[in-house]
Amino acid sequence: SSTMSFSEAEVQSARGAWEKIYVDAEDNGTTVLVRMFTEHPDTKSYFTHFKGMDSAEEMKQSDQVRGHGKKVFSAINDMVQHLDNSEAFLGILNPLGKKHATQLKIDPKNFRIICDIILQLMEEKFGGDCKASFEKVTNEICTHLNNIYKEEGW
């Protein structure tokens, strides 16, 4: 089903957890991407301008990596603001999913990778409770993205 079931308490704790990491959206978004590119080098192939970068240091300095990291975090932030409104949440996620499936042709497994790295970073910086509060959000995001991909014939 496309309706989400977050209790008011879950919404509040997920937002609280997200705010902690979103305060430094650009730095944390960059860290997440650099980790993804380093731990899963095949993901670099989607970003033509990151292909030649081998060192994490070089990636961290890149305006394009930083810009995309910020973009990813902004998109998640928009979704987090609408956890209590399925329609608005999907209104953000659907076009994003379609674009990644049809134009960018990004393998959907990469969304899970990015979400897991975000959770890992939350745990490192703010502890297990922070991570636990946000896990359901990442599951929703990945589930809905996978559904969009199925609709697009993946």
TrEMBL record:
It comes from the Eukaryota. Pfam families: Globin. Residues 5-150 form the Globin domain. GO terms for molecular function: heme binding; iron ion binding; oxygen binding; oxygen carrier activity; superoxide dismutase activity. Its EC number is 1.15.1.1. The keyword Transport applies. InterPro entries: Globin, Globin-like_sf, Globin/Proto, Globin_lamprey/hagfish. It catalyses: 2 superoxide + 2 H(+) = H2O2 + O2; Fe(III)-heme b-[protein] + nitric oxide + H2O = Fe(II)-heme b-[protein] + nitrite + 2 H(+); H2O2 + AH2 = A + 2 H2O; Fe(II)-heme b-[protein] + nitric oxide + O2 = Fe(III)-heme b-[protein] + nitrate. It is an enzyme of class 1 (oxidoreductase). Keywords: Heme, Iron, Metal-binding, Oxygen transport, Transport. PANTHER family: CYTOGLOBIN (PTHR46783), GLOBIN FAMILY PROFILE DOMAIN-CONTAINING PROTEIN (PTHR46783:SF3). Involved in oxygen transport from the lung to the various peripheral tissues. Belongs to the globin family. This is superoxide dismutase. It comes from Cephalopterus ornatus. The lineage of its organism: Eukaryota, Metazoa, Chordata, Craniata, Vertebrata.
